[in-house]
Amino acid sequence: MRAAIRGDGGRFVYIVSALAALNGLLFGFDTGIISGAILFIDTAFELSPLVEGIVVSGAMVGAAAGAAVGGQLSDRIGRKRFILLSAGVFFLGSFLMAVAPTVEVLVAGRMIDGIAIGFASIVGPLYISEIAPPAVRGGLTSLNQLMVTVGILSSYFVNYAFSGSGSWRIMLGAGMVPALVLAAGMSRMPESPRWLYERGRTDEARAVLRRTRDGDIESELSEIEATVEAQSGNGVRDLLSPWMRPALIVGLGLAVFQQVTGINAVMYYAPTILESTALGSSQSILASVAIGTVNVVMTVVAILLVDRVGRRPLLLVGTGGMIGSLTVAGLVFQFADPTGGMGWLATLTLVSFVAFFAIGLGPVFWLLISEIYPLAVRGSAMGLVTVANWLANLVVALSFPVLLDGIGTPMTFWLFGACSLVALLFTYRVVPETNGRTLEAIEADLRGATGLGSDASEDD
């Protein structure tokens, strides 16, 4: 069943999705801003390498904690109120970082900000996937990942704008502005119809569907009703059921592979990596802006393609391109002459790597985990998978400088390439196609063991 997307309902669902995707912008901005701010924080507080690592990774610790509780919390209080809560936590974390008189307060602010990032990484794609019609669900849910890339790019521009004055407090405090916009915008938006129906608020669910659809809503409402009636009521215990195992394997596998293939090592440390070439500090920052720009552009490409060609093809092509890019990057750092244009050649390989990530593992991971889990445990399952994602992120962020120092830049990139090869094989073997299917149809396949891992892409 393909829902109509023209008319007032179609326009409204785009507005709702765009506002919810501000979660992604805050996610990206608050993870990316530290890459430039840390240069000046280090000078202000005279950080040791260990403390510098703690400051950078503090947000990831908070994000893992936020994701750990965020899924169940979103199931309990609703998607909309959870978004409003995350906006408030974003504001508090940014404020504390901006006024931090000591390193301890700065780290506390980073961890609070990280909790909000963990919240946002769950609720943005979750809310959009539940409110969007199946025909455009892939593109709209991927809008959240697009805004993550826009947030990262915005943070690079803010870093560059205030790098002359070294105003790291303004850099870190700038996140308060989109947090306020998110809170103001979402206060007027509806709750997820699927969450409402599960809570017995049928009339409200029907009203939301009428606002976000232009065609007949009764068939979609009947599918939601049938799904809710089929729920076992065991909540989190369903996550451990045998019929849930394939979906958990897919989600947890993609969560880890998205990070251990090296994307955030590049995003967090691009200026550091490029400074090891003949590029100066300002050129390295400018190169990171180029990387961020390509990240945004290729995420737009993914959004345009994901509902046309499907999830699996983008994952396979993207991961294959990452393998090639990382292999070439290792060769560049192994053999290129630092004084002979190596810096810009290295930049091109990193740009290529990020481009392929942005059409595959970047947006498709978040889209898939918002689609493949049953309604009763969707928030909890996404929370578990997101915790795994942030823990893998934390491991990469902490280990990357150690790897550079221990085995060198070429071997580090080749290690990421080997992880990408395993990710490609994993995707080929176990990741399902969900394109064009209702969330209820995907769940019916899962419960009936009729082939979650098959390449079904027909309309329902």
UniProtKB/TrEMBL annotation:
Keywords: Membrane, Transmembrane, Transmembrane helix, Transport. Its main location: membrane. It is found in: Membrane. Signal peptide: none annotated. It is a multi-pass membrane protein. Residues 16-435 form the Major facilitator superfamily (MFS) profile domain. Gene3D superfamilies: MFS general substrate transporter like domains. The chain crosses the membrane at residues 12-41, 47-70, 82-101, 107-128, 140-162, 168-186, 247-270, 285-306, 313-336, 342-369, 381-400, 412-431. SUPFAM superfamilies: MFS general substrate transporter. Belongs to the major facilitator superfamily. Sugar transporter (TC 2.A.1.1) family. This is Sugar porter family MFS transporter.
